[in-house]
Amino acid sequence: MDPSAPTTPARRLTAGDNLTTIQSHVLAVEASHPSQAGSLSWILSALSLSAKVIASKIRRARLNDVLGSLDSENVQGERQEKLDVIANETLLRCLGERAGVAIVASEENEEPILLRTNTEGERKFIVLFDPLDGSANLDGCGGVGTIFSILRHDRRAGSPEKAVLQPGVQQVAAGYVLYGPSTVFVLTMGHGVDMFVLDPAIGAFLKVEAGLKIPRASKSYSCNEGNRLTFPDGYQKYLDWAQHNGYSSRYAGAMVADVHRILLKGGVFLYPPTKKAPAGKLRLMYEANPMAMIIEQAGGKAFAGKDRILEIAPEDLHQRTSVVLGSPAEVDQVLAHL
Ligand code: AHM
Ligand code: MG
Predict the structure, then answer these.
(1) What angle do CA 262, 308, 256 make, to 5 degrees?
(2) For the segment 136-168, what is each residue's pLDDT rounded down to a tens digit?
(3) What's the rounded Cα separation, in Å, for the pair 187 and 76?
(4) Residues 109-137 pLDDT 10s
(5) Is 254 a pocket residue for ligand 1 (Cβ < 6 Å)?
(6) 133 lines ligand 1 (CB under 6 A)
(7) In the chain, at which end, N or C, are there fewer CB atoms within 10 A of the end residue's CB?
(8) Domains detected in the chain
């Protein structure tokens, strides 16, 4: 068997099938899983609207003079690009209008924002997001993305700060948008992974893959090897092993672009602890958790060291984690060296 073959082939849709938008897809999933019915379809429509707005701003960024950094820093002490702020405001505005959203939390805002509380028996959600992941790529016209995670809101949690602190296994949906040569929206609602592409001619995301499965194995790893000398020993041993065994290295510097390639073509993405970022660089709640849910739903694996990412109990909205995720056989190879 070809190891790079998907664990089960995805159903590739043809142009004739190509009439399912994100909204109609979400309504169909909710209809076949009534326990999920609620306002998720309105939330996904806000996310798809945000994605279209952000995609158009990115496409015109050089023309509209919105490339480059601001003088400000975000809550992580990182320099903000102008488009980080524009993307954040777009998501906050679109999600803020949806009655089903109780709390939003962003990489760019220190605290979660309480929009409204639910009355008893009412179902509302928390949406966490990284508005523009990999934004350092923007000036070079490289791929960037939006990552989001949706959790149920439990009004008994006490405060928005406590309500958001749920492990990734409790996500009801997660996804990302890749702003590349096409604008691609990848979504899971816990019943597999589907992929949509923005058709700019009609302004809608159309389903192009249903039930995506990650290839079981592929000799490719993705990490910032500039940090290699400060990785813990196990990761360095894994890289030695991979390089002696004919692996390729691919790194876009934007997690969304790297994970998307791995989802389609296989391989493993690594962001180990480093001297500069001893707990890892990537954020658990709005980067690692949503990507881990997508990868697991596609038949892959996602770990932080020896721990399954989705089972980590978060202590802080902006907490960082190391990440190893991708094809199951490739993640196993990394873990065997740790
Ligand atoms: P960001 O959310 O501030 O853009 O940072 C996250 C990004 C990821 O997209 C990417 O995988 C990583 O940081 C790249 O970091 P490095 O430049 O250290 O390799
Ligand atoms: Mg990010």
Answers:
(1) 30
(2) 898 888 999 999 999 999 888 889 999 999 999
(3) 27
(4) 999 999 988 766 678 999 999 999 999 89
(5) yes
(6) yes
(7) N
(8) 11-210 (3.30.540.10), 220-337 (3.40.190.80)
